[in-house]
Amino acid sequence: MPRGARHVETGILRPSQYGLYALEMDGGGIWQLDVGWGWKARKLVGQRVTVEGTRAGFNLLDVRRIKIKGEGRSR
User: For the segment 18-63, what is each residue's pLDDT rounded down to a tens digit?
Assistant: First the structure.
């Protein structure tokens, strides 16, 4: 998929290196997440979330929105 493609993915939010977060997806695979407002995402670590973002690299998403799976509002 090309850079700039929009993605909506669900999985478990994990801490990663360099201040990034990682999304471990159910079917395998991991997205590195660039969350500019990481202090808000910190409270979601370990939870099942849905992430909306734009592909910025091979396995990197620039995150626009994160929400707990099943909740209507985003963080």
Answer: 778 999 998 899 999 998 776 778 899 999 999 999 999 999 999 9
Nearest alpha-carbon partner for 11 in 68, 71, 56: 68
Q: What is the dihedral sign for C-alpha 62, 68, 74, 75?
A: negative
Q: For residue 75, is it within any domain?
A: no
What predicted TM-score, i.e. pTM, was given to this entire model?
Answer: 0.82
Q: How many domains does the chain have?
A: 1
In a domain, 73, yes or no: no
Asked if residue 20 belongs to a domain, the reply is: yes
The one-letter code for the residue type at 51 is V
